[in-house]
Recover the amino acids of this structure.
């Protein structure tokens, strides 16, 4: 996994993850915009295989925010979460009469950005 960060946003990328991008996107759509703790709880109880690499990338992004930017993990929110297609792994299955059928095993690239939530306490003046 490669990692990078900006001033108020920390990012993490998981590249060449085994699994199709569309199946990873359906999980990322559920956690986008949530807090770090809520996202971890949701990922723990989802019945999808793609939650494991997503959890690893999310924890890496939070570790980047904590170590590189000095942000508190309890105040972090998932600002962006994307899954893009990676190159397929090409495999071949032997078939009848000496033929071979191609099998493409999909890979994807997962990118997650976390940023600090801005808690605004607006007091009404009477």
């Amino acid at each position: 996994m490669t990692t990078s960060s900006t001033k108020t946003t920390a990012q993490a990328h998981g590249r060449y993850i085994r699994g199709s991008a569309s199946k990873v996107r359906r999980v990322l759509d559920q956690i986008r915009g949530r807090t770090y703790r809520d996202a971890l709880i949701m990922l723990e109880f989802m019945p999808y295989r793609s939650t494991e690499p997503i959890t690893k990338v999310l924890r890496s992004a939070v570790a980047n925010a904590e170590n590189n930017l000095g942000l508190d993990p309890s105040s972090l929110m998932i600002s962006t979460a994307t899954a893009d297609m990676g190159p397929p792994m090409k495999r071949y299955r032997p078939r009848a009469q000496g033929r071979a059928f191609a099998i493409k095993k999909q890979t994807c690239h997962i990118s997650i950005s976390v940023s600090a939530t801005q808690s605004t306490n607006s007091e009404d003046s009477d």
Notes: Confidence is low (pLDDT under 50) at residues 122-126.
